[in-house]
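Researcher: Let's try something more involved. This one mixes different molecule types, so please make sure each is placed in the same coordinate frame as the others.
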Amino acid sequence: MLLVPCPNCGPRNSADLRYGGESHARPDPATASPLQWRGYLYLRDNPADWLRETWYCRSGCRRWFTLERNTATNEFRDPPLPGDKRGGKA
Amino acid sequence: MRRRPAKYSAAALAWRGLRGDSWPRVWRDTELKRSYDAVVVGGGVHGLATAYYLARNHGITDVAVVDKAYLGSGASGRNTAIVRANYLTPEGVAFYDRSLQLYNSMATDLNINVMFSERGHLTLAHSDAALRTMNWRAEVNKLQGVNSSVIDPDEIKKIAPALDTSDHPRHPILGALYHPPGGIVRHDAVVWGYARAADHMGVEMHQKTEVLDILCTGGDGPDGKGAGGRVTGVRTNRGDISTPVVVNCTAGWAGLISAMAGVRLPITTHPLQAAVTEPVKVFLNTVVVSGSLHVYISQTDRGELVFGAAVDPVATYSIRGSLEFTEELAGHVLELMPGISRMRLLRQWSGLCDMTPDYSPVMGFTPVDGFLVDVGWGTYGFKAAPVSGEQIAAAVATGKTPELIAPFALSRFDTGDLVGEKGAAAVGH
Amino acid sequence: MTMSRLGSQPTEVIDRSTTLRFRWNGKRFRGFEGDTIASALAAAGEHVFSRSMKYHRPRGMLTADFWDPNLLVQVGDDPNVRAGHRLLESGMDVHPQNVWPSLRHDIKAANGLVARFLTAGFYYKTFMRPQKLWPTYERVLATFAPGGKVDLDTPHRYHDKRYVHPDVVVAGAGPAGIEAALAAAAAGARVILVEHEHAVGGHLRYSSAESARTALSELRAALDASDVEVLTDSTVTGRYEDNWLGIVQRNHPIAVERLIKARAKVLVVAPGLIERPFVFAGNDRPGVITSGAVRRLINLWGVKPGERAVVFSANSEGDAAAADLDRVGVEVAAVIDGREGRRVSAAQGPPKALEAVVAGGTRTDADLLVVAAGWTAPTSLLNMAGDRPVYDPDAARFFPSDPPSNVLATGGLAGDGSLDELRAHGAATGRLAAQRASAVAHRLQARTARALEVTGDEPDWAADERTPLGRSPHPELYRSDTHGMIDLSEDVGSKDLVAAAREGYDSVELAKRYTTATMGSAQGKLETVNTVAAIAEARGETIAQVGTTVWRPPYAPLTLGALAGRVFEPVRVSSIHPWHEANGVHTILAGQWIRPDHYGDPAAEVRNVRTNVGLIDVTPLGKLDLRGPDIPNLLNLLYTNKWSKLPVGKVRYGMMCAEDGVVLDDGVTGRLGEDHYLMTTTSSGAASVWEWVENWLQTERPDWRVHVTPVTTAYTSINVAGPKSRELVSRVTTGVDLSPEAFAYMEVRTATVAGVAGCFMWRIGFTCELSFEIHVPAGHGLHVWEALMEAGADLGVGPFGLEGQRIMRLEKGHFIVGQDTDGLTLGPSTGLSPLIKLDKDDFAGMPELAWAADRQLPMIVAIQPDDPGVVPEEAAQIVRGDTNEILGRITSSRMSPTLGRSICLGQVEPELAAGGTKLTVLLTSGQRISATVIDHHAHFDPDGERLRG
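Model: All components are placed in one shared frame. Result:
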């Protein structure tokens, strides 16, 4: 059971949160080409390394936020980042 | 390069037993050459099947299968060895049905007993909605000639008396999709069988050989990688190999290997956990799956119950296993079979699964010439290994995408033409 | 091997004044309080306890503890009980396992005669032909499955779980573990000390030396005086991420087994060492026993293990066993000293007993062979923490390498030393653990700074300045000059492993898989190192070169009951549920909700709604209360249609699509006030749409001012439907003009209903009748329902359930997300393209929906079978003529009581979507029928005159 550092609630068991996956910027829907948009929908960096990802503290503060976690070791980088969505591979 | 195999049979066993003779090596231990006609990355069931069919069906024997650990060390040896063909989409059914046929004849084809136990496969429905999906699958299956039907709780009880088919308040068993041709196979035997048969035809297996980079030229990315380029070789921890064809048959590391060629995949990597109990006398003669309880159960001939579940929700490359998995699993198993609460969990483990957005694999050619993928196998790779190997080998040999795997092309994510297995395969084992 | 009870021993744990009667193998036996099942049987002279898995060889006692592979028995309905560990209880009914027809005469022992053919991997090499016969072979092989029997009527007895957040957990209460716990507690840490055995003390418990007994009583007294929580007969089963520990407590007074989940700040691993068997011919014969087992039998339970012993000793424990034997009157016929290079070669005798021991060419008569050949370090918890232990050939065992800094090893796992040195190392470990735990505690508190004030700076991460324990030299003793059994659980011998390695299965993992060595009930604790040694020998390499295998959790097997705990499966019901139950409801499960499906005759319920008025409880309908000035922007972003100009009091339908254009949810949203809206979602989408809304607001549009409150269960929702619904509602409603002019279709009001203020009243419905949907503050739901029933008695009011509603919605042609749509259904396929406003700036899924507008997509259409009496099953496939080509499917179907004919919704290929198209529907019976696509989705009242009324 991972201990997830929620910026509001402190460390919580991962079962208390929803994992939102790799965070990635949403292309401008007005100008995005099909390839760009489907890249946003489907393609992932999926690194075995540091990754920026979103979490939702569904049993606590009910905030979505972004964290950096190393997907090879499951360590979180301290402190948590504010709730932005830029990123992918950290 | 063709070698005379030591044939397996009861008579040969008896003869060697009487003489006290030992058996020859199942595959040779050879030097890594500097060049091959094709390099298959990943010594699991998919990679080995690909190599086997390259040699057997197309006479392409100058092939190296490289694996960073030992053969079958990844998902091939960690899955719960269930095979079935009762998928939801016509393309899925046709594909897995071919796989099941190949499993059926595998023991004689490969001259090794893979212990295919065609014991039937039950997918339980706990809600009207689930029952509707079961009916849908049964209808699609029937149209494709696959034996699969929806049965009621009385029939379920006859097939699997351990199941609680009473009027349970929370997860009543309302019916099940019954698929008699489904069953279990000894997964390791499939690995060894393909390796041994491929070896006999000249294919080389190289264990502890890790791919560090894929060498490309002419692509639009750095170092000649990426779209428009072509493969020239592979860099390994044992030196460079030149080759015009690299097939990525890895699971768990598919994204990392593809990135070495500059190909981005629609994949996230999640652990899939499994567990086994201590053995008890056999009481369960079929495979039982519950989608809404996220559990599948079978009992081996050795008497152990083998359990699996859905993939872990958090993407990671760490495969240490979790306590909550065993807790949830036990709770769900006891919902279905309350009588086994005194059985003890003996061992848990996990493997990596490459999940795609439409719960279907990514197979065939990529924007890099000579770089093929057979990846994104989620939780259903084992059951597809024979047909995948056969079809990917055909793609390599002919340069064309075989019809059976055309729906699974990487390009479908550019055009948005996804495969509709998601509904059925959310926990489809 | 003739065992019997000795006179009283100074260290014994049995209470000779309390006799316990039990049955073994159908016969009556007696033991004492404090005996294990096995010690009681041994004291009564039993020496064969089981038959081996493959060859069905008689097996005696080997280690006399939890890990003894030969001591698995059935106790009542409890299979695979560890008789070497489980305490004897009065009335136990104990049976041997895996024997047929009996322990004494086992027919399958004939397998032993063909052992030379049952070589490693023999299954793989035969039974291929004829293929048809494999199921028969398989059934025969399955009868060889080892283990006990499950009684499928076993109840799931009481199990609970406990959560703890200790500073330090110490796994293992030998002298080092106890000292670690005491030192950590003395430094102020909250400590849990977990001991696998029934009492603390480790090897001190079965040492007859005066010094050991003194030390043990000192340590026990110190523990009693401390704040350390001691759990005996409990095992740390796993160390998971961030020091999340599973602990199984087997001796809980109420729970059969209890799972304790601990988030330990620091874990101290002190399990001691496990004695390793030695491999030689006949090493699995009854009478061959480890030195530790001998000492336990004599000193804990007062059991004389034999009459004439040979001791093969390579260490002081073996010497101590020889001394114990001598002391209690067992003749020690020979001591074979492994430190002098001597080896035992064979244990000989008839099948069920030991007669003689062969060593160095000398045959010595004996009924007991005691083996002290070295140790296995149970590094499992360290492995689970990511450590890769390393082999030291001089000490002939593995040692920890580099565990994470919140996991500390002490005791025999960490090294050797005198009792004082081990105790000192334990104490130093405890102090270090307490220091590090306080640093962890400070950091956790700092991370939760909103709740707690953090005082002071974070303490430094204490450096490891413990004086390391030494390593005693020990000969590398794995196999003698003969071959023997390596894995007694699985009947895998050293010959099998050598053969496997020669065949190419020459890494530990491949050999394990090929031979099944280490896969059995002992989980590799006894056999792993010997397995590695056999492979190393076959490869001509060292043990260090071959490396070890990964130990996987759990450390000790635990019951599914303990893992499951109490099975909590909550269900949800509305406040009206008692009324439904009192009125003959037939319920249906929808997610967690138990809902009224019908009350006996759904068709009659439909007819009543169509002619009079009916009530349905639609409480699970998802409801989100939205407040703030940016709500129109939010709605424009989430729904495909436009929301900028919705007046107060008006309601609009909307469809939500995901970013890939696939239909996600639908429902109506009403504007209750200037900055106040109520959004409704599908029942199944209530939770996910809320998270979806929050995700957009928090991550994509954090500048927008919208506050979202889920109010699904805060309101009981009742839909009043039928031509007489206005009349009925008007009788109980105040504060709202219900006339069609004042309160039109698709409007919402706040009303007082049956005296309950603050109800939201909507003119919407799923039934295509005039209807009013009332959201009543949940506490008053039942009251309002009953008031409506009472007030409408003369109007013919009656309840209707989900089935009636589904029939009526199908008559109206409303699709249900998730039933008529699937995971690939794009917005335009629903036929609601006019609601997809591509001229908006942005909304979820917009690009995909824009591209989809130009594509030919499968469509949802209304279908009527040409034979009105045939209802195709939901899932029936639509095919091309007589072929098996699939062109669509029926997604919803019912017999319409209103129209007296079968009606359907289905998904079809685009070329079949036009009204009037003839379809072939394949029924599940295999019959093909013809059907026709109708012009619009509504089978009934296509112009909506009834619901606007």
